[in-house]
Amino acid sequence: MHLIILGAPGSGKGTQAVRIKERYGLAHISTGDILRAEVAAGSELGRRAKAVMDAGQLVGDDIVLAMVGKRLAQPDCVRGWILDGFPRTRAQAEGLGRLLAGADLDVDLGLLIQVQPEEVIRRLSGRRVNRASGRIYSREELIHLADATGEIPAAGAAPEGGDFYQRDDDKADTIRDRLAVYEEQTRPVIDYYENHDKVVRIDGAQPMERVTDAIFSILRDRFGSRESA
Ligand code: AP5
Hints:
Layout: E1 2-7, H1 13-24, E2 27-30, H2 31-41, H3 44-54, H4 61-72, E3 81-84, H5 90-101, E4 109-114, H6 117-126, E5 128-130, E6 136-137, E7 155-157, E8 163-165, H7 172-195, E9 199-203, H8 208-223
Parallel strand pairs: 1-3, 1-4, 2-3, 4-9
Antiparallel strand pairs: 5-6, 5-8, 7-8
Bound molecules: BIS(adenosine)-5'-pentaphosphate.
BIS(adenosine)-5'-pentaphosphate binds next to helix 1, helix 2, helix 3, helix 6 and strand 6.
């Protein structure tokens, strides 16, 4: 199974990609996670990427394509993969096509999670991430920590141990910039895969479990019940 998960920032791609990975035993390749790991490691790539990410802009196509090419060559990808946050430009989609053609592979399906911009802003301003495990918390999960204005602290003790933090690009102004970049640069990626008849749309405004059920139902219809052993 070779999947891509598409949708605006905060539409729930990462949340759902983890569930798909666990159910189907796929490699979960998130370009955002790879870039954040480079930033945390203080590598040359990380130093260059940080400023771009903090501004809500996109890292260069060549850099991201090289990163994904390297990751796809790792052994866990043989069982199939789900790409999350990539491709994000038409050039990346075409580059991925060339990369896969060399291995006689193709994208099987693009799952497009649809959510309105106001909901994206609500979700992302309340999102926190567990520093150690990478687990993503929703606003609702941490609402008991909110102050009188309803704001959740940017950092604090995570419910299951360790600490949580707020991503630098989850500040209100940057969220708006990311949404603009999505409309301008990533919408054409949806058109690209729709022209290849590879996109299914999912209502991402539903509760998380319902979104997961809708995705699993689509995957069962397309691929049968090939769950992870
Ligand atoms: P990246 O990390 O890919 O960020 P993104 O695409 O903006 O997506 P997010 O991670 O913000 O959101 P998501 O859709 O995964 O939502 P989540 O599941 O967390 O990229 C970050 C940056 O890296 C980019 O801006 C760019 O600079 C760079 N970059 C990355 N890839 C690149 C590429 N290919 N090319 C160039 N640059 C690249 O959910 C959000 C919140 O909502 C969570 O709190 C979650 O708990 C909650 N939630 C999820 N589903 C629901 C639901 N159904 N109901 C209620 N709450 C929900």
